[in-house]
Amino acid sequence: MASGCHRKTPASAPGDARGDRSGSAADSNSSPVSSPVPGRASDGNSAGQHRAGPDTPHPNAAEWPAWEVAEGLVDYAQALERMERRVAEIRAGTAPELIWLVEHPPLYTAGTRAKPADLLTPDRFPVYQTGRGGEYTYHGPGQRVVYVMIDLTRRGRDVRRFVAGLEAWIIAALARFNVTAEVRDGRVGVWVPRPAMGREDKIAAIGVRVRRWVSYHGLAINVDPDLAHFSGIVPCGLSAFGVTSLADLGYPVTLTDMDVALHETLPTLLTYTEKS
């Protein structure tokens, strides 16, 4: 089952579900966090230090996943290894759910539906084959990638609603900066209408994989990446649409600003994932 570039996901399905997103890390890029407050972590002593965030937890913070913000660029292969391990631990009940915010060096990832013709410059950046569904996407500095590892058995076995929750969460966070963003039928992700230019551009991508009802991968929001780097691929196989960022739209937002907005609006996602 896939959920990614195309906005169509079965409401529920057993086993392993793939979507479009996109450690040897013994959980070394970020240490486990017992508090849901960004930047507050237990004894982390590795390269991935934590960026400080707000110090006031939400009233329902006890129900939140752990929250980690990695400092510096995180190697993609190590991130994937860590996600795989954490998913197994969540499934086994030996680790809490986790929302992990990272920034990667420039790279492309290919989903299971990626077409060779959509990789326009194969030698430009490293290309990683992922287990997710979907097609090609780009990650790089200035882009906030959020890996969402939560137990949908505990929160509600509805992948379609989970993806809708991710979209709503992004829209709520962007609204903190007075950015009006929208979703489109048939296209997963979040879009910004630009009527003066006669088009709409993608500002955030979403793609998830669900293994035994534990999610991983997640979303990517363009804060201030080099948009020229997207020209090496056809993002999500959608050649008719452009890509934008908060900086491109004229908003001087930092990654830390975005982290705070995401943390403050996290209840938007958690409301979508509540069991009915």
Automatic annotation (TrEMBL):
Known pathway: Protein modification; protein lipoylation via endogenous pathway; protein N(6)-(lipoyl)lysine from octanoyl-[acyl-carrier-protein]: step 1/2
Start and end of every BPL/LPL catalytic domain? Answer: 93-274
Q: Name one Pfam family in it.
A: LplA-B_cat
Give the top-level enzyme category. Answer: transferase
Q: Which UniProt keywords apply?
A: Acyltransferase, Cytoplasm, Transferase
Reactions catalysed, as given in the entry: octanoyl-[ACP] + L-lysyl-[protein] = N(6)-octanoyl-L-lysyl-[protein] + holo-[ACP] + H(+)
Which residues carry the site feature described as Lowers pKa of active site Cys? K202
Biased composition of type Low complexity is found at: 22-42
Q: What does this protein do?
A: Catalyzes the transfer of endogenously produced octanoic acid from octanoyl-acyl-carrier-protein onto the lipoyl domains of lipoate-dependent enzymes. Lipoyl-ACP can also act as a substrate although octanoyl-ACP is likely to be the physiological substrate.
Q: What is this protein called?
A: Octanoyltransferase
**What lineage, starting at the top, does this entry show?**
Bacteria, Pseudomonadati, Pseudomonadota, Alphaproteobacteria, Rhodothalassiales
Q: Which gene encodes it?
A: lipB
